[in-house]
Amino acid sequence: IVDEAKVVYGENHEKLNALIERSSELERSLQDKHKELDRQLEEVYEQKKLLKDAKENIYTELKNEKFTLDKAYKKAIAEITQMPVDAYLCYVRDEETEIVQIV
Questions:
Q1: Which of 72, 61, 67 is nearest to 95 (CA)?
Q2: Is 70 exposed, middle or buried (0-12, 13-18, 19+ CB in 10 A)?
Q3: What is the distance between the alpha carbons of residues 59 and 17, in angstroms, rounded to a whole number?
Q4: Entry pTM
């Protein structure tokens, strides 16, 4: 009986060791995958931040350009409305967005 118990215990002990070893391998693998996912998630957050900053910069540039164009438009309208009707039939903008007459 003792000999049989030693054999059975030894077999169970080896199975238990194999299970513990496999469990440890799985745990290490899970930790490695978790670290990799954390790294990838950090990259995604960084890319999201960069895209948000770029979007804000583009929006600011667009807003400034719209303001500049609106200002130039209002200035042109103001200048044209102060001239006689036949005087502004042939106008173009120069490089400085000033209205000049081509006669």
A1: 72
A2: exposed
A3: 62
A4: 0.53
